[in-house]
Amino acid sequence: MDEQNIPIDINTNKLLDWLISRRHVNKEWHTNIIKVREKINNAIQDMPVHEGIIKLLSGQHINYFHCLKIVDILKETEADTKNLFGRYGSQRMKDWQDILQSYQKENLYLAESAQILMRNVSYEVPSLKKQVTKLEQTQVECEKKIKEYTKAENSIQSEFNSSCKQLGIEGKKIKKELVNMLEELPEIYKKAAETIAMVKPALELYSAFINFHSDQRKDEVLPLLKYLIKNGNTTTYEYTYGEKPVSIEEPPLKIEIDDSDEDKNSEEIDFGDDIDFGDVNTESNIDFAITPMSEGDIDWGTLNTIEDDFEIVDHVDLDINLEESGIVVEKSGLDGGIAKGNDAYSLLDNPSTQNLILNDLMELKAFLNMRLYEMSGDSDLLSMSQIDAPTLLQMQTVESLTSMNDCVTVSLNELLNKRTQHLHNVKHSARYVDILAASLKQKLNAVQRIKDSKQILEEKIREAQLEITKLQPTILTVIENTKVLQQNIEDDISKKYKGRPVNIVGGVNMM
């Protein structure tokens, strides 16, 4: 093959070393380039208005090949200053011609161009692409965390809606709505009393059993339950004194309905400290540290300090400090005096008597369960013990006992279902109302905090996209300029080797 056609392949990373080793450039070139850069900085301060020059000077490092183009443009703009000898009187032209001469000395321009090419290929373009990749990863992480936030938001909102539905309220003005629901209690207790009346056969059976096995009289067995079945859900006053009151004065509710505060809280929720998102590109877990955005978990406030599910409905002693009942007997009253305090409540409404009634029902249920267990066994001892028993005891079957047991269970459920217990506790404990309202508000606050966190993430996504939009054209411009520079270097080296083809391997074309 003709030597003239043998290509010269030069690795991009070794380009500058190759030029120095072939003595095309001086190894101390970097000390001389400083003066050239100073001349360029001074020269660009005084440039004619020309579209080509503006394009050359905008956003890129001026090198030797740019200077050649600038001189060509100045030949047009400074043509009026050209004298008879072909020289230009323009200081601009003199400055740039001097710059070209300085560049050409010891091929200084070639060393600088090689360094620019190596820097663009090895650092500049990869760095810009890495920034874009990092921003895209940020978008992916934020979108992932938004999905996790949305899932948590829907879950908490669902819990809130379920709790409100269970209570029969909308959840807008929680305390007020809870107090309004108390109007349903009389009807609830009326229905419960009618249901409890169905346990009369079971109570008669239990009374007969107790009377048969002990000296206790029938009327002494579960007297309160027996009274409720016979007389209905009367006032505690009537049960205690055996006569109806002239009037009933229930204690006023001790619930502070702070509607203004609720409205304010719904508009201006205190979200505590800001969420620390940390580095978006870390391990996912709504942790920015939203852990999955380390970064730390979302601060849910004191959400966990309050029962999320409303299992506080178990009937317990709420330590209610109510006024002792006071009875005022009116001389002209035919049916007694005025029922006040706890005596003004109905038997099922009064916390004390309701507890006694529940205890009676549970005692009755325990008796029926034991009888069912005994009758379902194979032992003849039960039959022997019932020989002298009353007919009522001997006539019972597993089916009849099961039916009675079901009636007792239904009666207990009427009083112990969550909604009834919520309303009962709301009426008799202001602290319970505060806890219940705070629990619901905590859920709303958590939902709002998640929404705010999602907005922050969405803003991060928008900012990342905006940055990507700015970087992509920059990358394309740098690559295009680098390609042009590489071609100029290849052509220049080729001239030094009598036109042999020169290939800079691993250059910008590989990017």
TrEMBL record:
Residues 440-467 form a coiled coil. Keywords: Coiled coil. The keyword Manganese does not apply. One of its GO terms (biological process) is regulation of mitotic cell cycle. InterPro entries: CDK5RAP3. One of its GO terms (cellular component) is endomembrane system. PANTHER family: CDK5 REGULATORY SUBUNIT-ASSOCIATED PROTEIN 3. This is CDK5 regulatory subunit-associated protein 3. The lineage of its organism: Eukaryota, Metazoa, Ecdysozoa, Arthropoda, Hexapoda.
